[in-house]
Amino acid sequence: MKSLYKDKYFSILGDSISTFEGCSQPKDAAYYDRAKKMETGVLTPADTWWGIVLESLGGKLLVNNSWSGSTVCNHPAFEVPSYACSEERTSALSKEGITPSVIIVYMGTND
Fold first, then answer.
1. Which pTM does this prediction carry?
2. pLDDT tens across 31-71, in order?
3. Phi/psi at 13 (5° precision)
4. CB 14 within 8 A of CB 105
């Protein structure tokens, strides 16, 4: 299976558990910030669930569009369109004219 995805671009559309400081936006909403990295031992992107998947498949990260506090669907109280099915989130999975070969969606059951 690794050869099928080798060197293919992956984008992640996720919630808090998929965030990592320096890899996801907005930068101030990362679950794996400096303190959480030390507490959990998730110190590099390779230690995240998506880093392990990419490594095992031979893929490359294109975009990590994961937000702490995001939900699957819109809620009337939201001021920022952080919900996963928003146009802002779904249209931001490409980068610099490159589209991902694979998009992984990981939204928690509490979202």
1. 0.85
2. 888 888 889 999 999 999 999 999 999 999 999 998 887 77
3. -115, 105
4. yes
Bridge partners (DSSP) of residue 66 are 14
- Residue 31 to residue 47: CA distance in whole angstroms: 14
**Cβ neighbours of residue 46 under 8 Å, at least 6 residues apart?**
52, 55
Q: Which strands, in side-by-side order, build the sheet including 60-66?
A: 60-66, 9-14, 102-106
Burial code (b: 16+ CB inside 10 Å, e: under 16) for 40-57 equals eebeebeebebbebbeeb
Coil, helix or strand at residue 14: strand
Tell me how many degrees the CA angle 73-40-82 measures, rounded to the nearest 5.
Answer: 20
Structure tokens at 28: 């101030």
Residues 6+ apart with CB under 8 A from 19: 29, 30, 31, 32, 64, 66, 67, 68
